[in-house]
Write a structure and sequence with these properties.
Layout (H helix, E strand, L loop, with lengths): L1 H36 L8 H9 L2 H15 L10 H16 L6 H26 L8 H12 L3 H31 L2 H8 L22 H50 L5 H7 L6 H14 L3 E10 L2 E7 L13 E2 L3 H5 L1 H5 L7 E5 L2 E11 L5 E10 L1 H50 L5 H12 L8 H47 L7 H19 L8 H10 L12 H4 L7 H24 L5 H12 L20 H16 L10 H10 L7 H9 L1 H8 L6
Antiparallel strand pairs: 1-2, 1-6, 2-3, 4-5, 5-6
């Protein structure tokens, strides 16, 4: 069995691998054809949609994800769009399951949804990755034309443009995928649908009535989603912080290097002349050109200046201007900016100050200051470098978009596989065991055998604690069934012994009455005939369970057990009894009740069998009209078993020979029973008795007197 399961699992995984490889190959072929033709499309979702139609969630999502990963080897930018491919894949499977991809009206809606995901959502991702830019290409040119015809701004026009382009792309892709699907052999489709990795949503769901608050399926899904989200959030957070810190460090190193080079190359003897004469000073222009060259060498640097920080303000020595900001002239005194204000005292003392980041009228700026000292170590002035950090925000958003996209695509794949494996290896096996336990029947040997086969056929092979649980449950069930069979066998033996002892006891009592013949056996037979007929006709159906009938029939031979207390002289008197003797004979009902009461007292637990035996012994001479004995009970106050025995007892007495009478014919006896309906007998019991006349005659025929 283990070997068979291993082969079946290997076949499933090989078929899954085949679908994935074929899907990725189709996507890459479509992408390469698009490149060769120079189309402004993608054509990289053919395999994804075909996998959705033929394979379901697992291969489809994997195909979408791996297409971007494999494509990333030649174009790293492609990797960041794996989340878009995975979203398209998941949407395609949902639509395939609902038959939306194979019906014409709904397939148009499907194409538009794919275009929204690939175009609008993908375009938004492109805008973020490019630092709030849609880049270049046909879609951007189309957006410009759209915006000129219908002004809606750069962002909206580009989103609309990429949506329209992607709608054409997804229409072509969907048409090709559908064509390939319809050309696929039917046997191959059926084979793929039979695989364990087919539509994840196809797994049988547990009935709500059997659930306890939250199902295990939901718990596993939530656990996987929560854990993967936590991992992703942590990783993304750490990544963006590291990226931010690394960028700050890189900017700081550039600034420190630039200020060190300037400080080292500055002619300290001419600084005072530069400050006083400005551009009129010798070599001022050459020094300014040096500063400009250093600024141009590092794109990150926006401003370079040399200031003499004094109590009255900032004295300008050099200040390179930009197109946006006009520079101050040498000798000008300008107010302190935020950084100088923050470190004013240290700057006045000529000390070194740390790298500073500020946000002022010049934007988000990183400033590096380095003192220029004379030969005696005295600070003459400071060289400062400002680097704009505004681009860093866009870069961080782009980096964040890339990381989130990559992680989401990866986590969606992980989540899909995790839920699938949990479903196959945890949830389904546990549900199968629970379902087998609920459906297990112990009622009959055949039901127990079939239920045991059902448990064995579960054949759970997870290779972990769940398989151990199944094995233990299967073995325990088999042991339980075996134990029940043994107990039932012994119970049957005890029942036979009990019934045999009852018949022996009844025969001992009956043997004292030389006129009654085989009375106890035939009355028991008539009793069963009546009870079965009433059960068949639905009379007293709330009482006539199989267990009840068996108890009454088994205890019927004890109905005359009280005769053991009646003397032989009265019991075997050849003629009619006197009134006094008849009263004595009547005591066999109360004496029978007492005998059964003693037996009940010896039993630890309440016995319905003995209770019915007492009812029969004590009340079988009660009459429906209340004129019977010993208690004068009437109607349904008389126990049902006693009402049935009353008919059986009287009928057998009528058709049997007695010392004081000849036997009646069956017809005569039936007429007497019929006449006694509603007076002596329960009408419902009489009706059932008469309806079963054929069975009654068969038992009566066994009487040698007939």
């Amino acid at each position: 069995m283990k070997q068979k399961n291993a082969k079946r699992a290997a076949s499933a995984w090989l078929s899954l691998l085949g679908v994935i490889v074929a899907g990725v190959a189709l996507n890459l072929i479509g992408k390469n054809i698009n490149t060769l033709l120079g189309l402004p499309l993608f054509l990289d979702n053919i395999g994804t949609l075909l996998s959705a139609l033929a394979g379901g969630y697992i291969p489809c999502i994997t195909v979408g994800f791996l297409t971007n990963i494999v494509g990333g080897f030649t174009d790293s930018f492609t990797i960041y769009y794996c989340v878009i491919s995975v979203l398209i894949a998941a949407t395609a499977v949902v639509m395939a399951k609902k038959k939306m991809l194979t019906r014409f009206p709904s397939v148009i809606a499907a194409v538009l949804v794919f275009a929204f995901i690939g175009g609008a959502v993908g375009g938004l991702l492109t805008w973020l990755i490019n630092g709030f830019s849609f880049g270049e290409g046909y879609a951007v040119d189309l957006a410009a034309r759209i915006n000129s015809a219908l002004p809606m701004g750069y962002f909206l026009s580009n989103l609309l443009s990429v949506f329209l382009v992607d709608a054409v792309d997804k229409a072509i892709v969907t048409a090709v995928a559908l064509l390939l699907f319809f050309l696929m052999p039917k046997r191959l489709k059926e084979f793929l649908k039979s695989r364990s990795w087919f539509f994840l949503a196809e797994f049988e769901k547990q009935a709500k009535s059997n659930r306890k608050k939250i199902s295990l399926r939901v718990k596993v899904t939530l656990l996987v989603a929560a854990s993967t989200t936590l991992v992703a959030a942590t990783a993304i957070g750490v990544s963006i912080v590291q990226y931010h810190n690394a960028t700050i460090q890189e900017y700081s190193q550039v600034g420190e290097h630039a200020t060190r080079v300037i400080a080292e190359r500055m002619d300290k003897n001419k600084l005072l002349e530069y400050k006083n004469k400005g551009r009129q000073a010798a070599d001022y222009a050459q020094t300014e050109d040096l500063l400009c060259a250093i600024r141009e060498a590092s794109p990150e640097i926006e401003f370079i200046y040399i200031y003499d920080i004094r109590e009255d303000g900032t004295h300008v020595v050099f200040d390179l201007d930009t197109e946006e900001v006009k520079a101050a002239e040498a000798g000008d005194v300008i107010p302190y900016d935020k950084t100088i204000t923050k470190y004013r005292d240290a700057l006045l003392r000529g000390e070194e100050i740390p790298v500073d980041i500020s946000d002022d009228v010049y934007g988000w700026v990183l400033s590096v200051y380095r003192p220029i000292r004379d030969d005696n170590g005295k600070t003459m002035c400071y060289v400062g470098v400002d680097m704009s950090m505004n681009d860093l925000r866009a870069e961080e958003f782009a980096f964040l978009a890339k990381i989130i996209s990559l992680f989401l695509g990866f986590l969606l794949v992980i989540r899909t596989y995790a839920v699938w494996m949990a479903e196959r290896k945890i949830i389904s096996p546990i549900n199968d065991i629970a379902d087998a336990a609920n459906r297990f029947s112990y009622e009959t040997p055949q039901a127990r055998e079939e239920s045991l086969k059902m448990v064995e056929n579960l054949d759970i092979d997870t290779g972990d604690e769940i398989e151990n649980l199944y094995t233990a449950y299967r073995d325990a069930t088999a042991d339980t069934v075996r134990y029940i069979d043994e107990v039932q066998q012994k119970s049957n033996q005890i029942t036979k012994l009990q019934n045999g002892l009852i018949m022996v006891l009844a025969d001992m009592v009956e043997s004292r009455d030389k006129c009654t013949g085989d009375h106890v056996r035939k009355t028991a037979a008539y009793t069963e005939i009546i009870l079965r007929q009433m059960q068949k006709e639905g009379i007293y159906e709330d009482r006539l369970s199989e267990e009840y009938i068996n108890e009454v029939v088994s205890s019927a031979p004890l109905h005359d057990v009280g005769k053991i207390a009646v003397s032989d002289a009265i019991l075997n008197k050849p003629g009619r009894l006197t009134d006094e003797e008849f009263l004595t004979m009547q005591t066999h009902t109360t004496e029978g009740g007492k005998i059964i009461d003693k037996a009940i007292g010896l039993v630890a637990e309440e016995s319905e069998y003995l209770n019915e035996a007492k009812n029969l012994a004590q009340s079988h001479h009660e009459k429906w009209n209340g004129k019977g004995y010993p208690n004068g009970l009437s109607g349904e106050d008389i126990p049902l078993s006693a009402r049935v025995m009353a008919v059986a007892d009287v009928f057998d007495a009528l058709v049997s020979r007695r010392s004081y009478k000849e036997p009646f014919s069956v017809e005569q006896a039936l007429d007497i029973i019929r006449e006694g309906s509603g007076n002596h007998f329960d009408p419902n019991v009489v009706r059932a008795f008469l309806d079963a006349e054929d069975e009654v005659r068969r038992v009566a025929a066994m009487n040698m007197d007939i």
